[in-house]
Structure prediction request, 338 residues.
Amino acid sequence: MEARFVTEGARFTRPGDPLFRRVPLDHGVEIAVVGVAVRFESNSEAVVRAVTQWFQSGRAIAPTQPPAGEMPVRVTVVVHGANEGTAAGGQMTYRMPDRHRVFVHTAGSFGVADTARGDAIAYVTEALVEDEARFMFGVVEMLTLVLVTARDRYPIHAAMLYKDGVSLLLAAPSGRGKSTVAYQAHLDGWHVVADDGVYIQTSPALRLWGRPGRLHLPVDAVRWFPQLADRHPEKLANGKVKILIEVRDGAAFSPTDGPVGVCLLERGGREASLERVSSDDLRAALLADLATANDLYGDAGEAAVARLATGGGWRVRIATNPSDVIPVLDRIRHEIAA
Prediction:
């Protein structure tokens, strides 16, 4: 049964100032998000409760200490009295006016993350907070990840699997089958450490972080997994419709410090196959899907990807049935472990 997050109302403290300049932030918590200390503050206890459930639903990980002179990341969420109007439940809009700032807004809510300052603030409606999955995924998690990825956590589009001391990254743009393969691997004894986002830490050593918790499967995955027939697809904040599956078993394996193999996942062919990929080709493929990340992180992000690509990797082609690719993944795992 899928875990549901319930706020039970979003009561909040309303300041006397109509411009909300002096909001009483009576509720707060500090949480490690992919190893980076983040201070969350709000005028609503429901917000802090939702944040705690969302980011600590797996194994809590102690945060790394920020470098000297660098403050912890701060995310402030202010609940105010506006409403979402007829757009409630609709798709959120994101904008990036420069390399330091990312905006998100709905009809009644607005937020901005500023990587130069290391903080984010969002003014959100009660209705949005009560729609907790949309609120957390589309606003709080997005703003938080913009900030923490600027603290030596460079993101790539990849699923991450772990088995017998070896991690495999399945790198590909959206829609190439990462989640479907990850779910099949989960059924075959692999631990799912990440669904679609892996974060590269470069200092003091190369380290990979995942956000275990949910798999986002396409609706047509039911044809391969009939046990999902009674699951109701949900519309995400980005407008996509997915079947959400809880996979908390990977929490104990984040972050990953052992040997890692990087696979470029592709569709095509009558049967699953693999071939070796040079470090230059692997680096180029990983960077090709990171235009927005390059805008945010520049040369530092490219250097992190180059370190990950050292030694090359594999190109894995998926045939029709996702179960056909599991022996290929096991073959790579044995090769890495040898």
Remarks:
- Residues 291-309 form the longest helix (19 residues).
- The radius of gyration is 20 Å.
- The longest strand covers residues 154-163.
